[in-house]
Specification:
Number of helices of chain A: 10
Number of strands of chain A: 5
Oligomer: homodimer
CATH superfamily of the largest domain in chain A: Response regulator
CATH topology of the largest domain in chain A: Rossmann fold
Number of domains of chain A: 2
Largest sheet of chain A: 5 strands, parallel
Distance between the termini of chain A: 53 Å
Order of helices and strands of chain A: EHEHEHEHEHHHHHH
CATH architecture of the largest domain in chain A: 3-Layer(aba) Sandwich
Shape of chain A: elongated
CATH class of the largest domain in chain A: Alpha Beta
Helix content of chain A: 40-55%
DNA sequence: GCGCCAATAGCATAAACGGGTGATTTCAAA
DNA sequence: TTTGAAATCACCCGTTTATGCTATTGGCGC
């Protein structure tokens, strides 16, 4: 019977790696399945060592931890990847998450919390350093930041634009608002002027990309 | 000089609220600015008490914590809202985040961590219970899930579709790939068949919404 | 009251588009 | 080897769009 969580460490700094292995070996409930300075032998190591949790550094020779993560998840989907790195720029955080990382800790995290995080991530949680989490949350909040309608579209023009974004023809839009097709044409001319485009498709693209209309 | 973090608690359960106030009062570095069972008097309380951090329950009589959060942030944008609730369904989590919450803890979090979270959130972090964080991360990873869109478009058809999404006319697309306009037309007919649409705009909309092309 | 502007509408013309039909070539799978 | 899907091109015909010009009406502000 095997209740131990099998952990692998990928970390190119030797001192850190050895510190981690020492820490893991000293923790009941965990077992160190391996510790390596790079991810070059991932395809053989993963099937052989069958880790439950991987502590992944980002900056390593050869393959970065961010690149290695999807490879690892492809080899062993149930394995949880916990990034453990000094980087806290949004790019790296989001890349890691998109590539399948389930947790993201900065290296300055105290040992006790790293251990706790290993259990957390294995239990289905996503431990994250608070400052990293803030960057993730900003992503959800920033839609508000997106520039509002400063093209000075009138209310009616917005109506028409919404019609275009629904994929309607001039005729359908005319029917929708009980106005003539010529009027629709007229509004659309003004919309094109204001948005600086000259086709329906461009107008629709601009409307969506700049969120001039709610989809 | 005032280095204390001013904290307000909104929590309708009296025992919990009193437990929290006791905990906060006993913690150096924090000062309890108020504790209330609902958010009805938010507009007067916030300016009067000037909190730095608010512990916010969700399920309260009158206004829910989720509804109260944007009001509070409007009154005092610098104030950090830390949700403290039993709910861990995605809807509530995302609503809270969109409305301006900066942290999200489940009530089963031990007191010591709640205290730590208050300092974290005040320092600009976003403490989150690991299981909550996992739900947030899933949001970023799920684009993969949104990919049952197999319309069997050929490579060339995808090229053409990308051209449409760039807002190009048939003629421009023809020039881009050094083929005739009639060929473009022909490809587009097939694209329309496969996507089940019948206009450029609809095709572009479908392509974007279902991420058939990378924008 | 006067002027401005959004909303409405019409007409005209040229370009772009959508749909029908059909054809040739190439390449890979059956 | 046959079959079939992709990619290429062509012609036709009617519809939709893009653009230019013009014009009336009803509100709003000054």
């Amino acid at each position: 019977m095997e209740d131990l969580i099998r952990v692998i460490v990928f970390e190119d700094n030797r001192d850190l790696r050895e510190g981690m292995t020492f820490l893991l070996q000293a923790t009941p409930g965990l077992t160190l399945a391996g510790a390596f300075s790079d991810c070059r032998d991932l395809p053989t190591q993963i099937p052989a060592l069958q880790p439950d949790v991987v502590l992944m550094d980002i900056d390593m020779p050869g393959i970065t931890g961010i690149e290695a993560t999807p490879l690892l998840k492809a080899l062993r989907p149930a394995c949880q990847v916990l990034m453990l790195t000094v980087f806290e720029d949004e790019d790296k955080i989001f890349q890691a998450i998109r590539n399948g990382a389930s947790g993201y800790l900065l290296k300055r995290t105290p040992p006790g919390e790293i251990i706790k995080a290993i259990f957390d991530v294995h239990r289905g949680g996503s431990p994250m350093t608070a400052s990293v989490a803030r960057k993730v949350l900003h992503f959800f909040q920033e839609p508000a930041k997106t520039a509002p309608n400063d093209y000075q579209l009138s209310a009616r023009e917005l109506d028409i634009l919404k019609g275009l974004v629904k994929g309607f023809s001039y005729k359908l839009i005319a029917d929708e608002f009980f106005i003539s097709v010529d009027t629709v044409r007229s509004h659309i001319r003004h919309i094109y002027d204001k948005l600086q485009v000259n086709s329906k498709t461009e107008a629709v693209l601009k409307a969506i990309r700049e969120k001039l209309v709610l989809e």
